[in-house]
Write a sequence for this structure.
């Protein structure tokens, strides 16, 4: 099976797993006066994450959802207005901060265009109301097809928010994909936010975990929220060792994933019924089924019959995600099969 459902399905390599026996372990949940745990490998991973993002401190969390939730709770109270984009992962999937049965934050929306650039006038208008407590951005933007918000746009958002005393949090689950695609260092992106979360369990290939980075006071508050959310862990060095390996060895190869997504997009320019993003910006390619007379679930079933698995993003969208388990040969096979399915579909039949 050529599995393009997500880059979360990546498996640790033997070289990554071989770092685990050498990990220096301790009780990561037993903190000293400075707020550091006793697991030396976890502390090393957190220090590495802080250095890569240019922040004072970092916190290892089991998931990106928990890390993002801790970030919001460290800055906001129930009823706080949080500036988000309507298709942000924090709002659409993670949800709990905005649910009535959860933490009851109030989402206030801004717009982004098809290339991921934000509507700065709309952001300014919302900030001018004086009610916004926090602003959340996402880079790369998952549900827009891995689009990368330009550094200049992030800088403008940060400037606007700083002028209103509003904390900017970056959901950078695929931060390193964004940096590679934009041709900048991660720090050039993260200098334009107050806090950032990034995953090591997606394209970087580690099996577990995400890092939340920010100043020391922010991370101290996030540590307390991680505990209350059930995220205090013990000998986390067994996972942190893999994360350290990922950050030291798997960042540069992310270019391969973007190139494979772009290769597939180029091969699909001959589509008749389906439409594909002609220029994916990172490691995600979206297929548009509008006008193809088929639903996302039906199309995904046809893909599975040909040995390919995608993700049904909506009734009319399929998401294909490239990662370290996918080769150029896999991308070529996927192109052949998608083109073959396309030839069987009627054209111009809108669902």
């Amino acid at each position: 099976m050529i599995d393009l459902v997500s880059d979360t399905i990546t498996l640790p390599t033997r070289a990554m797993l071989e770092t685990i026996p050498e990990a220096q372990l301790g009780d990561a949940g037993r903190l000293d006066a400075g707020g550091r745990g006793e697991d030396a490998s976890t502390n090393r991973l957190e220090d590495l994450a802080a250095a890569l993002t240019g922040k004072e401190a970092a916190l290892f969390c089991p998931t990106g959802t928990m890390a993002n939730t801790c970030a919001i709770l460290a800055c906001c109270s129930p009823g706080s207005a949080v500036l988000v984009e309507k298709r942000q992962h924090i709002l659409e999937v993670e949800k709990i901060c905005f649910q009535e049965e959860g933490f009851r934050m109030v989402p206030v929306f801004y717009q982004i265009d098809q290339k991921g650039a934000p509507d700065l006038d709309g952001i300014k208008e919302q900030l001018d109301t004086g009610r916004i407590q926090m602003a959340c951005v996402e880079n790369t933007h998952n549900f827009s097809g891995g689009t990368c918000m330009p550094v200049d746009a992030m800088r403008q958002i940060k400037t606007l928010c700083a002028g209103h005393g509003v904390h900017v949090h970056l959901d950078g689950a695929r931060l390193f994909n964004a940096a590679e695609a934009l041709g900048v260092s991660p720090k050039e992106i993260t200098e334009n936010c107050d806090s950032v979360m990034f995953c090591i369990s997606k394209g970087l290939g580690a099996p577990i975990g995400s890092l939340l980075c920010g100043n020391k006071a922010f991370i101290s508050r996030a540590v307390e929220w991680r505990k209350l959310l059930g995220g205090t862990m013990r000998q986390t060095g067994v996972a942190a060792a893999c994360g350290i390996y990922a950050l030291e060895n798997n960042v540069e190869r992310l270019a391969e994933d973007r190139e494979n997504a772009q290769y597939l997009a180029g091969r699909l320019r001959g589509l008749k019924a389906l439409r594909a993003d002609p220029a994916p910006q990172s490691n995600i390619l979206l297929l548009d089924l509008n006008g193809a007379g088929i639903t996302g679930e039906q199309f995904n079933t046809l893909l599975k019959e040909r040995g390919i698995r995608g993700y049904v993003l909506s009734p009319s969208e399929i998401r294909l995600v490239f990662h370290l388990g996918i080769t150029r040969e896999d991308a070529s096979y996927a192109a052949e099969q998608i083109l073959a399915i396309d030839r069987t579909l009627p054209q111009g039949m809108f669902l």
